[in-house]
Write a structure and sequence with these properties.
By secondary structure, this protein is α/β, with parallel strands linked by helices. It has a single domain (9-207), classed as Maf protein (Alpha-Beta Complex), CATH 3.90.950.10. It has helices at 23-31, 55-76, 106-116, 155-163, 191-195, 199-207; strands spanning 16-18, 37-38, 85-95, 98-100, 120-132, 137-150, 184-188. Strands 1, 2, 3, 4, 5, 6 and 7 form a seven-stranded mixed sheet that branches. Helix 3 packs across helix 4 (155-163). Its cofactor is a divalent metal cation. It comes from Phycomyces blakesleeanus.
Length: 209
Amino acid sequence: MGLELPLWDNIKGKRLVLASASPRRKEIMEDMGLAFDVVTTLAPDENNPANYKTSEEYVADTALMKAIEVFGRCKTETSLEEADIVIGADTVVVIQGKILEKPRSEQEALDMIGQLSGQTHTVLTAVQILKKEKEGYSQSGFVENTSVTFSIIDKVVQEAYVRSGEPFDKAGGYGIQGSASLFVESINGDYWNVVGLPKNHLYRKLKLL
């Protein structure tokens, strides 16, 4: 029998909504023992990085757009129940100052894996939490930073990985929890951040609500 911990007494009875269609984020929140609903955001999955001074500002604003869109829709759409807490998230890979989102073609996926081969890159995940207040909402958020180093990946392996289809719904064109784990030489930071949702930092933030 597992250890029962009073992890979420502070938000018990609150309607918690994840503003993401990501199956990985859903699984992570389930593993955290959270009771929540998923409402897929209609906000753009990708913003324009050129409008921001830093990658951190870009990813934080993109996550906020997603959270705000879902919070508003839960309040106005009759088919949705009003949310007490909405969590929006966005993950990007950054290498040599360049932001890599989800690849849109096989060639783009190949280009991304080629750039990451034998290099160290940064994974940024922004999390934005909106909490319903008497008037509007309060906002809290953070950006988690993890460094990942890939070993050199043979061209034939790169092509086979792209053909597998795994890269296409993942920032930077790879999933660390899948076959791409074989490419990872080292990691510095939160593993779950690379998967798409940093458990510990999210836990600490939710406990403050």
